[in-house]
Predict the structure.
Amino acid sequence: MSAHDVVITGIGLVSSLGEGTDAHWHKLTAADAAPTVDATRYPPYTVHPLPEIDWSLQIAKRGDQRQMETWQRLGTYTAGLALDDAGIKGDEGLCATMDMVVAAGGGERDGTVDDAILAASETRNDREVLLNEKLTTELRPTLFLAQLSNLLAGNISIVHKVTGSSRTFMGEEGAGVSAVETAAARIRSGQSTHMLVGGAFQTEHPDMLLGYELGGYLHRGPWKPVWQRDGAEGGGVVSGSGAAFLVLESREHAKARGRHIYAQLGPVISGRARRSKEDLATAIGGLLDKTSLPDGPLLALSGASGAHAATAAEGSALAQYGNIAARGFATLTGHMKEAQFPFAVALAALAVDRKAGYPAFDAQAEKRYEGIPHSVLATAVGYHYFEGMALVSASD
Amino acid sequence: MAHYHDHLGRPLVAVTGIGVVTSLGVGKTDNWTALTSGRSGIHPITRFPVDHLNTRIAGTVDFLASSDKGASALTFELAEKAGREAIAESGFDTDEFGGPLFLASPPVELDWRERFSLYNASKEGSASDRLLAVARNLQTLDIFETSQFGSIAARLADEFGTRGLPITLSTACASGATAIQLGVEAIRRGECDRALSIGADGSATAEALIRFSLLSALSTQNDTPEKASKPFSKDRDGFVLAEGSAALVLESLEAALARGATILGIMRGCGEKADDFHRTRSKPDGSPAIGAVKAALADAGLGKDGIGYVNAHGTSTPENDKMEHLSLSTVFGEHIRSMPVSSNKSMIGHTLSAAGAIEAAFSLMTMRQGVIPPTINYDNPDPAIELDVVPHRKREADVSTVLSNSFGFGGQNTCLVMAREPV
């Protein structure tokens, strides 16, 4: 135990299952946990939609809400939940010295404007002039800011006054892995005392589906659990809207504030297998080797996306370790891209804190786990590239 | 051993390789010659039609193979060219670099030409149905790659043999500086003894131009493009959108000297401070920028008399230049009168995600060459901004430390302090 150990003192979660740690714990530990899915809005795709959210609970000013689209609101809101949970929200001193790493993609484009341009392109050959004509007259100036990747962090600074430092990492699941890894490294080295780290993904926009489907990654047809989509129509990913933010602190800092510690964040290991040249399962096995896994049965919160090759490789790598009971939470939340890894770490920390595992989310594919999880593994193997994992343990 | 570590006991970080591409050319030599001759790279836009546009000039990079292939392809090529030059200069293998990669690049979006081609390849259903139906039947991953935020870094990692999961980042117009800061920090924490930091931006599309135009951020002085970017001038009216890239090979000084590498400069300190005032405007009292400059000085272990030259953010927007002057004069007090402060953007425009990296590269060259590039177009000085901007012509000067500022939308403020020698 060291003063610079990284501990988790705040968790903010939003997904189709609800908002907050309690709602997620209750839904995910229920014997008959069922997903919330919407198969009607984007056929032939299914998505896990956002729940009803009263944005004003975390974003007090209507003016601030108006400056954002749903993705930024979702992230800013969930960051607020985490800050609240850690007892930092509204504490000017702590917020002004808090460092932040956000994993982000991009925000929502204006579908109405885009569709009008596309429709006009059917009858015009001067498409570049058409673009200038429409974009100069129909784009809302503020929408650009609602799309910019680093403006999720920017809005968190404005709304919650987190202003120590602000960095935005991009790159799908890998961005979430690097964000957690970098935040932990800063605390371990004494560079930061407390950090806000996380990400958000809003899938309910055609462009967000297109981001997967240009690579043929989306599952089509009836919903299935994440491990059972191989062989079904499409690429295996069912996406979900959601967000996860964590407050990480040095043990010393958290103790001095007398805060509840959910868990300690142990090794965070990242990698980039060259998937076209090397065996992904072997590469994931290599990461597991580096994660200092404890002996005995181990619960793993797997961020598996359902993408056929990556999910099969992860399943086989985890199975080869023999005593890992994986929980593919995307079965119930959908795949949340940049937020996937922070979400996995958050669910792992909850299990450690509540001294209980999650029942199988897919009784056919997932092993039973009983007992008190002292350590829990969190993984995110990208649907296309980038891999990462972390070990979360009881803090005492 | 003490001289391998800084005032806080951390490993000193040296620069052993530099690569640059801007609208002035490819490579350090061409860029430096142009920059020190006071030549502008700003020109009329020819990449796309300028009908209906208020701004019809830019500092685009039009002379690469991918210059007309979309933002993703061009950003990759810019990053690749700068990275290759930097690694080659450092003496490491260009295909087996062996350290982590930090890439500052613009957020990606599906290019309009792809959107048009997907849409018009189908005739059924709503626009989004058509795009999605065509997308799922594509036979290659080419378009997919352009829509993934991590794919440029993944390709660079393959090409250069960098280690581990590459980090792609955005801190808006401070991104290039942040990429360098992340590399410096990784070496200081002992995670690696070398890192490759790249800032690259090839995203000067019509839509990007229109978006900045709608925010009234761009100069509209189209008639004399080379005169449009005029930082610190009274008649400055916005920045000029531009493209470019720079790469630095960062290395622990100890490791660099052990292998006999040439030391091109030292990354002495990094500082940052986020602003919570507004999405595009900075706090009127300049406190976040002031905080970032002070944090960089403290990190470098230097006082307010420790900086020999400021490579300004100097965008040529009314707001930035005023705020930057306020923050510099607040931090440096009387010293600022004797400190040259110039803006490379007067010649190369604002290269957005790449700016912090390009300007760090030029800062290092300034020290090594003993020549300060000028601020051109300083014909009507802003009387409210009393700075020695090194007007019109380069100046020979013995510069041993530089402060390079980068400020961006979203309250991003990052400052780097560089030194010629380890001290």
